[in-house]
Specification:
Chain lengths: ~260, ~260
């Protein structure tokens, strides 16, 4: 039986707790033996309260401790652990493995998904980026990872950094462009819902084809008449700046000008 | 029986031809009686060749003529029609209704989707933006539209212009951000496929929640340490410009600075 402890009570921690509890039900040989939360009652709906501790001194012995806290708390939380030479992972996309305290063996257990509180996700579909200091630790990490995700992959700190930057472009920034589209629709009394099928289709396309091949639109066609008309239409300075920069970038194929 | 003729042989024309042929099969009271294509043989795989003409003088009488050609050819093609006072629509998101020749009654029949040649689409799911000069013409347009799409909506030229600009942000620009993410992955030997579930999830989220509510990431959290680390990581000037501008825009909630 592989014994896991989750440290944290936020978004990622809660999704991990649910995923491990589901894995337990499937008798997969894993056990979430304990959770650490400063406010024990914050997890009352999720897990039997007697499994939750708020004392580092009460932490049981486990094969893997997963610190699922905010980036800036990882270092201090890892230094508060009172045991030594156990396997301790954080769940951050942007924090290096080396930030973890030297008292224990370091690892990363990073689920690449943006979790929304309360919104159920099928953890099995989420890519899990794993990193450890040696192959024995990696095997343990991988064993645990594969029990909750179908996409557990070895990713080192440098690759993880790249992934995190890439995810900001592909996801955070895309979502912001959806917001601008929504703003433009609102200003012009057009229901944003008309755009939703196209947004889904655009995202779906790149599962099968390279985004470079999938590119369409006036910038790609070098349709200057439409580009001029759009720039004349856009009244907001910030929107106009973004329109011009991304149009230019498409015309230069995303490469340095 | 409503008689429709499609003029054009490109991407949109081909998808319309397929959609109308499917509607015919369902005995919906619509008939695609003819197609105009300069090169008749280009449609040989799609429709019986005797239904295709390359002579404007041979065009039959129909209830609706749909000009599905590139934006810059709409005006000239509409002026080549030899009949008068019939209902003629174009399929463009960015061309005003008024650009059509005065000889006939003008309309717009704009499917809001980016079609990829050869890739099958369920036309029923595609939003169809309709505009006519009077309510009788609009009724005919709407009747035809509803036979091939479950989302036929009245959209005037000003709204259509807004939609087209919004679609460039939400789709063309998002796809370009996917490409940049792909480039960053490639440069760092990370498989882009790891990001694909997150991309789908980001697009799916905004079906249910407002993009403003769905926004996540370092810019939204004002996490300056991560933003600085990302900016230090990005080596390409163009990527860095985009990162900075969109980060700033998220921090100002997409409003003018």
């Amino acid at each position: 039986m592989v014994k896991v402890i989750v440290i944290g009570s936020g978004n990622v921690a809660q999704h991990l707790i649910t995923a491990f509890q589901n894995a337990e039900k499937n008798e997969s040989g894993i056990s979430l033996i304990q959770v650490f939360a400063r406010k024990r009652e914050s997890l009352a709906a999720l897990i039997p309260i007697q499994k939750v501790t708020n004392q580092f001194s009460e932490l049981l012995e486990a094969d893997l401790y997963i610190i699922a806290v905010s980036d800036d708390a990882i270092e201090s939380v890892s230094s508060e652990l009172l045991f030594k030479n156990r396997l301790v992972a954080h769940t951050s996309g942007s924090v290096p493995l080396t930030l973890l305290n030297n008292n224990n063996r370091k690892a990363v257990f990073y689920p690449l998904q943006s979790f929304t509180k309360g919104a159920a996700v099928d953890f099995k579909t989420i890519p899990l980026c794993l990193e450890a200091e040696n192959s024995i630790d990696f095997q343990m990490l991988s064993k645990v990872g594969k029990l909750i995700s179908d996409h557990a992959t070895a990713i080192n700190s440098q690759q993880r950094k790249a992934l995190h930057v890439a995810a900001v472009f592909a996801n955070n920034f895309s979502n912001h462009l959806y917001q601008i589209a929504n703003d433009i629709c609102k200003e012009n009394q057009v229901p944003f819902s008309i755009l939703k099928p196209l947004i889904q289709e655009t995202a779906k396309k790149i599962v099968a084809i390279d985004p470079e091949q999938a590119q369409t639109g006036p910038a790609k066609r070098n349709d200057q008449i439409t580009i001029d008309a759009h720039e004349a239409f856009i009244k907001d300075d910030n929107q106009l700046k973004i329109y011009k920069l991304l149009t230019q970038s498409i015309q230069h194929n995303g490469k340095k000008l």
